[in-house]
Write a structure and sequence with these properties.
This protein has about 450 residues and is an alpha/beta fold. Helices cover about 45% and strands about 15% of the residues. Belongs to the bacterial sugar transferase family.
Amino acid sequence: MAQIVRFGGIGDEGTLAWVRNTEIGYTSVSIAIAAVWLAFLSVSNTRSPRVIGSGPEEYRRIASSTLKLFGLIAIVSLVMRVDLARGYLAIALPAGLLGLLLSRRGWRRYAVAQRRAGQYLTSVLVVGGRDAAKAMTASFARDTLSGYRVVGVCTPSRRFGDKPTFEVEGLEIPVIDDAMSVVEAVKLTGADTVAVAATERLGADRIRDMVWELEPLGVDLVVTAGVVDVAGQRIEIRPVANMPLVHVEKPQFDRAKSFGKTAFDFCFALCALIAIAPVMIAAAVAVKLTSRGPVFYKSERMGIDGKPFEMIKFRSMFVDADKHLDALVAMNEGAGLLFKMRDDPRVTKVGKVLRRFSLDELPQFINVLKGEMSVVGPRPPLRREVEEYDGNVRRRLLVRPGVTGLWQVSGRSDLSWDESVRLDVSYVENWSMMQDLLIIKKTLSAVARSDGAY
């Protein structure tokens, strides 16, 4: 494509003057670059089964190998005095990289759809004690799109009361007594990956023997580090004294309070308010004309470090809604300390529409401009909720609450209390700007589908 755009066609392409009395057509140059490009992608293991379909790491390797290739082309051109057309390269690099990323994204979406249908799954045999095995199985069950399906747990069956199965996340997982060898368990379950959930019980020698035993079967072995909800950028594996040590960086909530995030929040909120001004005006008029009371509803919420502030929303309930809360507590459908009802009688007709598409939350961008909230962050809690927090849940308050967050893109009101807390704490400790951008993108999709909104 770069050749056609730059030179007007394949047959009338320019030639590359290199050495005396030697002219090479750009068709040959294009073929050579494409071949070397494929080689760079292969050397970078961009098609490794452990990487393909994983998303960020796959894209990172593609971008890295592409930039290395064109860096090499630039060096070779300079050293060997090869006069490559700059316009040709200026088209080939971004167009080729974009095409690679889009094609991988398309295949990834296809793989995700297949995994939802029960295809393209990795069958896993979990080896370890009861608690560790159940925790690992539950993690795999929650993240169905990762493609791992637990087909058996090799553990002392007496710990399960000699039951042939145990239930995790609604799934019945076969239990295989550890008296049976791992090789026999693999053959029995048909697993193609063995996941070790408790290394202290097996020991270094047994794990090494397991690698040797699984090698003829072509079965992979993975070992958990025993940590959960830690993002990849906080983990680094370093071999020390013949031991692979997993170095876990400190939680990154300080970075979530940095000047860079604050500046991004302010600029994004300002641009968002300007862009959605017509929608907000229409919503304000609808609220005012259809029910008695103010347009905005101000609710006390607890911000960073537990400092209270007034969160602004479009009023979606009748004016005296708070007075009827005690009568509805028994019908609470929310999780944990949250009060939610799918058919709350206090919600106005216009309020139902606003809530369905999260339009009632748009004025919160004003709170962002005031520095009380962030665009992305934990859910803003009520004072009565914070008073019930224990030590772990209070980590939510280490950063500013957000207009959206992991809780918003993961089911909103449909989440359990424990899952909501886990997502918020995970966000606080693993913050990154890239994660914020991905959450904003996913929020638009979640709002359009009205997932968990009521």
